[in-house]
Amino acid sequence: MIVIYGVKDRLNPIKAKLSNVIHECMQSVLGMPEDKRAHRIVPLEREDFYYPGGRSDAYTVIEINMMSGRKPETQKALIKSLFQQLESQLSLAPIDVEITIKEQQPHQWGFRGMTGDEANDLKYEVSV
After folding, report:
1. What is the pLDDT of residues 44-68, one digit of tens each?
2. Which residues cross the membrane (predicted)?
């Protein structure tokens, strides 16, 4: 699951394209299937979104939640791909993008009535 935060006035006009760019990166780097998009977009009022100095109102936070198992090199490749594609396709400067990957053990995920360690029909690899 991916959660995206930003200032409402800047995030709303680009949210569909932003979701597409993020999912393209997830597919190309992690091999996620087309139908495995789980994005939550949280547009915030300016007064509800505090961010570091030197950033613009385009500042966007992307939290990627995933089951553990991806190699550090794969995670770094995903982050770098996101920075590159967000800049080239949406003109989001890297200074205005913050990306965090939060890993949880498969037994800490619940979906389709089971835990992640019980799922044996995933259409993508976790250990990449």
Report:
1. 999 999 999 999 999 999 999 999 9
2. none
What is the total count of domains within the chain? 1
pTM of the model: 0.91
Is residue 128 domain-resident? no
Residue 4: DSSP 8-state: E
**CA 73/CA 111 separation, integer angstroms:** 27
The whole domain housing 13 covers: 2-118
* 96 inside domain: yes
Amino acid, single-letter form, for residue 120:
N
Kindly report the CATH number assigned to the domain that includes residue 94: 3.30.429.10
